[in-house]
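ok so i was messing around last nite and threw this chain in just to see what happens. nothing serious, just curious
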Amino acid sequence: MGHMRFEAAELLTTGQCPLSCAYCYIPKVPIMQDVHKDIIKGLEDGSFLDNLEKVAGQNLAHLSFWGTEPALTLGVIETKLDEIQRRFPKVRNMGFSTSMVMPEPIIQFSKKLEGRNIKMDLQVSIDGPEFIIDKNRFPGASKKIPDNVIEFVKAMQGSGVNIEMHWKPTLTIDNIREMSESTELIDVYMNFFRDLEIRIKDVNKDSNIRMWEGGYTPSIAVPGKYTSDDGIAFAEYLKKLHKKGYVSAYSSRLTRIVNFSDELGPKRRMFTCSGGDSNVGVGDRMHICHRTFYLNDERYVDAVLGKKNINNWDISIFNRGMVDILKKWYMPKIDDELKMMNFDYILRGYHDFWQLKMAMVESMTKELALAGQAEKIFLTNKDYLSLFALFMTAAHSCPMESVLNTGSLHLTPVSMIRMFANGAFREIVKTTR
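result:
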């Protein structure tokens, strides 16, 4: 008997980034250049693949590349493709999330997959039109990134590579407030993605290249310190969004819970994050997912805590005590079989047993309602409260968000409860089918 053999893995492949996005969960500090060099060394000498084999064995079927901007090291990874397929013969999917500011290495890597029977899953982080993405990322992003997407699609025509693309839009609370106050901007947002999809259809004549049409309903930025006022603003945004006939990602999540309610007992893992379940992060240690990459590197942690101001980060979220908890319990050394088995045991508790999480959401929501920081209906309608607790547990499953904010896998951050308990959940219920 040993630790679980995961079928999917997120491999740490980069340590620096050409961007500094407003909501990025990775604080940017100069030491990341040294971290990046060490990661490249681990990729080149094969030690990261050794770690991957120890974690996944022959079970690995899905391999994704994470860190900062994966395009920076795709040239190194493409030299390892033969070795990856030899050591992990079941791998049928490779993918990564990219800002698409560097299309050339992505094109080159994708073409190297020809004839390998591997599907490429490409997630493009693109937040919307100029009034959003040019603020969140960099001036001119609203033109450059779509143009680079088109360049990629054109370059892959007739390549024979199986490619599936989808968007990953993220909104800050400032973006949400702006669209709520000027509702015509909601249409501008939707039309931005519709126009981009039309452009792709015009140039894509290859049936091997597909995209998730309409897959641009945004999610809110995490981590975040959301207030009750933010929750009220979010509810107003959802109300106006739905009034225009659009469906939010959160309505879809609740619909999924309702449609598959028969599975809530026997297959709870269907509704939780895959981190630590079927999927795991791999670097020089094992991680629940990519969200904790770098946090086991003392050089990086010390550098972040030593700075008073970081442009893309609220430093108060980054807490030494929380990092120490993560390192002790949720980042086992890959050569320590006992620690990895303990990791598996702890994460099974997260994925398979919800009673504590549900009870915490219910009690905290009632406390917030008594304090005037959540809607009063939660004090009088027990069924509504239970449905809300289920929604927060099953539709917002993020073990890392919980640990980084509360120190426990099983405690939902109060910030997220405030965000949805001030009218947003009511709007979501109205549009659930």
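not much to say yet. The mean pLDDT is 91.
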